[in-house]
User: Fold these one by one.
Assistant:
Number 1:
Amino acid sequence: RTQMLRAWVAHTPGQEHEPGRADLLFTFEDAVGRRRRRLEEAIGLLDTRLRRREELLGRVGAEWPLCRQRAAAQGDRVIVAYRLYEDALSLLRQAPCDIERAEAAVERFVGFCSATADGEEGAS
């Protein structure tokens, strides 16, 4: 585009041929290109974070019924499991979602559920 713009400026008559105006056009063209790249990078980052959020929501949703069943067999552990589940779910549903905090909460919940499963297996 810049070459086409320079060719156009070189063949324009009178006042339109002023180099200052051409420089201004080139400046805007460069600025638009930089901003477009930054926006594309930001959109890519947001898409990645949204996909991760959906993955974590699915993980919590799938783990809860299993964990609830295991923890219920051990009495009060179901209350702890539910609190961890609610904490993870509320962080994932917040807008904007702090994906790092939500991921840590999901890991705590899944870790608790895994410990419940390990304890159950060890008792058998």
Note: The CA atoms of residues 60 and 99 lie 14 Å apart.
Number 2:
Amino acid sequence: MINWAHRLLQPATDNTAYTVVYIPSPRRTLYSEIRRALSLIGIAQERVIDIQFPARGTVGLLIHTSYEKELRKLLAQAKLHTKDEFNPISATTIGDPTLLAKLTEDERATEARKIYQERMFNLCMRLPKKHFQVAILCHFTTLPSDNNHHVDVLYWTKFQEAHPKPTRNHSYYSYLEADSPPPTHDNHDSNDGRLYTDWFQYHNYAIQPNPKKRGKGGISLLVRPDLNVHIHHFPNKTRYTLSFKIDTYTFHGLYLPPPPPPDYNDNIQCKELLDQLEIDDHTIIFGDLNARSKLITGDHQNNSRGLHVLEPWTLTNGLLTWNGTLARGQPAFHTNAGHSIINLFISRETALIDPTLQIFDMASLKTHHHLCTLTFTTTTSWQQLPTPNATRGIKVIPDNSTIEQIERNLVSAIYNALDRSVTRTKARPKHWKKFWNDELQRKADLHEEAYKRWCQSPNIITVRAALWNKYTLICDEFTKEIRCTQRQIWKQFCSKLGNAPVNEANSTIKQIRKNRNSTHSFSHPEGPEKAVEDMPTHLSSVFGGERTSDTSLPFMDINTDDNPFLAIEIEVIINKIAPRKAPGDDHLTGAMLKPISKPLSNTL
């Protein structure tokens, strides 16, 4: 450990080379045995990157060249010699009898070189740290071609294809069929993808090609628990839309990723996706379309999707983009590189009454997109759901103001005395989470204030850079404080649960598991009343027991000659049964059946 700390705290060197030291081994051994033997003679295990068996009787140790001198010294002290003359691409390294029989001497040398290069490439692919992968493969591909350890540059290209450079968190279009299920996380079920909130939620989950990386895309719909209207969620046909219906209004939430260059095919696919949407006089489309248009929204720049897709599509369907009418020229997406209007609200003009669009460009949500709200009055009133467990009207008994007034005066006097003596405590806001406190609220206010200062700062690069740096520092501190508080609350909960009685702990765990189970309910676009009417009809048609026809099927005579099992085959099977093992539930063993196998097979 001291040597490791010494290497860690030393200044970096220009030596980026690697080498393979070969030592003899009389027999086939395991990796663990080689590691154990190396540790016994004092070789640091962390300095040996990989152990290879390139040929029979040879072990290769891949190390950094800075450790080669010390490694050879330790081997010499242990009276072990190295095989410096070993050639990993020699034809003699091939030991497969099949290859030796069918390949010539030149073909064996070519095959040996290929095997060595494949072995080095697979080594780089399985190393846990990517900087090791890149450094080792770069070194061996840059060696001269006449070097025995040279690796062809084609393997470097293959490595780059397997490890592409990070791109923007957007996915390209790969449209799904109408009857195909919506894409979800490969390694997660729907419960893991749900947000921990009491709001009703509907998701079109993002795709996650690599479990170690963030997902791409994804749309979520969150509904307040006190929203007293019926919401019917339509099945997701593509991973770019999330559609639902409230009364007569149909809503389509969209997320269209930015088009990759060249974007000719993207325009065609985007047009096909928009044409699949069902549009009427009560349809509202909203979301991030990544389409920019000077004509429609007042953006300062056009892009191909805005010119060739958005403008013709809105004109053909008679749609109005409310951003251009209610907030023309006001950006909804803001970065250091610039701003744009890509978060859009679209519908026909007659669908909304007195609409207002508000863009909160001074609120930081740790994203480049600004929060946008569209408020409007519907053309028809939405049907309200009946209040669950509504109390019936109770006739109020006439109040006798004598004793009740004395009680109110006494309670008021007690509260006034307490307020003057111990002061009134500040009520905790109901919308706060369990882990939220005054300190987090203070840092959240500082976070928002720093973001507003950066947004309102003059367009001077030095001033904006300083304010942005201050904002990022406050943001990191705020995030760190939230995680620390959440961990503290979680530890307190675990400690309380561990010290609680068994029945209380079991009840708490049961409630947690119950809350995580997803519930399914039958929904109808026309509301819950229509769903209640349709469900009994459907169940009666399936389980009612009504016969579709009163005529019985004619009796068919069984042809005894048409027997798929021959007697001789049944006899062979009986003789193969284990003598002391019962093949069925009747506990008849093979020893009972074998003496009567011939007559039994004829009977069967």
Note: Residues 461-499 form the longest helix (39 residues).
